[in-house]
Amino acid sequence: MRHGLFHALGLPGEPPTRPIEFDTLLKETLSQTFRVLVCDEAQWMGRSSFEYWRHLWDDRNTDIAVIFAGGDGCYKVLKREPMLASRIFIWQKFTRMPEAEVVGTLPAFHPLWTGVDPQMIRNIDRAAAHGNFRNWATITKHMLNGMKKKGLTEVKQDLVNWVYSKLGGM
Description:
Strand content: 5-15%
Helix content: 55-70%
Structural class: mainly alpha
Number of strands: 2
Low-confidence stretches: none
Mean pLDDT: 92
Largest sheet: 2 strands, parallel
Shape: elongated
């Protein structure tokens, strides 16, 4: 985790070799400006990893919020760690976005979707995204790559079909 944080924070030079020096560097860095740290797939983390997150969060000088995101079983795993669970401010379960919300959210998410026919957005959602924002982020990235590669300036059905060919099993 230390090395992951070192690289995620873009710290210069080589990581310290001794844990105490490493922790001091990370805490100093996390004290300089507020940061939101996202730990994805948290259901796969072990007790020592959770303890380390708690250790960083509990330091009076660090200015961080930690978001634990995960799939099935994440809630149960986090609840098994009472010292960590007692510090969780809000538990939030995410579900699929309804189509109306997808249509309203995408233009705010990325300018690519501004001006795209709402029916096309609904069709993409039904065929590939299924109300899942992570899927929409992937689709958006493929759309942008496809537009650059093909020299396009707007979303058309041919581009959507090309993106579908890149998704594989969504």
